Amino acid sequence: MSRRTERAALGGAVTVRIAHVADLDALMALEHAAFAIDRAERRAIRHAIRSSSMSLLVAVATDPDAEAELLVGAATLERRRTSAVARLSSIAVAPSRAGHGLGGLLLAAAEAEARRHGLARLRLEVRADNGAGIRLYERHGYRRYGTKPDYYEDGMEAWCYEKALEPA
Ligand SMILES: CC(C)(COP(=O)(O)OP(=O)(O)OC[C@H]1O[C@@H](n2cnc3c(N)ncnc32)[C@H](O)[C@@H]1OP(=O)(O)O)[C@@H](O)C(=O)NCCC(=O)NCCS
Questions:
Q1: Per-residue pLDDT tens for 2-13?
Q2: Which domains does the chain show, CATH number per domain?
Q3: For residue 31, what is the DSSP state?
Q4: Pocket around ligand 1: residues whose beta carbon is below 6 Å from it?
Q5: What percent of the chain is predicted at pLDDT more than 90?
Q6: 7, 93, 139, 160: residue to mutate for ligand 1 pocket, most atoms within 8 A of CB
Q7: SS3 content of the chain, % helix, strand, coil (to 5)
């Protein structure tokens, strides 16, 4: 691995943008790499890209050697016309890139996107046994306000988190 590729592998030169339909294959690969169960199906991801009430954000690293973007993370935000609360329905980082701040980068981008739409709060559910997810949210100021028993495919309960967003 060259020095430049190594730097990219450590998470350098990563930007967050809105996903396009052309990202579908890479998003499916990320979904399979990051989640063992409760994976989103291809048509659900395609719907999230096209929906006017959802924002699918992708973190992309530019590999200067390949002159191509590499999709290294994603986050999905859902809005409802009648509610000031946005929902983060998914966040994932490529396992090879975990622990370098990409989760935090995507979370901050999702919060900025919610604020851009004038929303006051962000809510999310996380598996009660997902230590990495729980640490990420608590470090970024999310407060646990409830639980949902038997929420996931395997019966695991969800912990519900919320954060008040500063106005844009
Ligand atoms: C949960 C998840 C998104 C976190 O992503 P991540 O990129 O690893 O998150 P961060 O790097 O921002 O934070 C994770 C760790 O890296 C550390 N870190 C943050 N910035 C860092 C940096 N610049 N350099 C080195 N380490 C850093 C943090 O301190 C944290 O350490 P800790 O967990 O031991 O306290 C990721 O683990 C994931 O995709 N999991 C699978 C899917 C999932 O469970 N999603 C959440 C539920 S929907």
A1: 333 334 444 458
A2: 3-164 (3.40.630.30)
A3: H
A4: 34-35, 90-93, 98-104, 126, 130, 132-133, 135-136
A5: 85
A6: 93
A7: 35, 35, 35
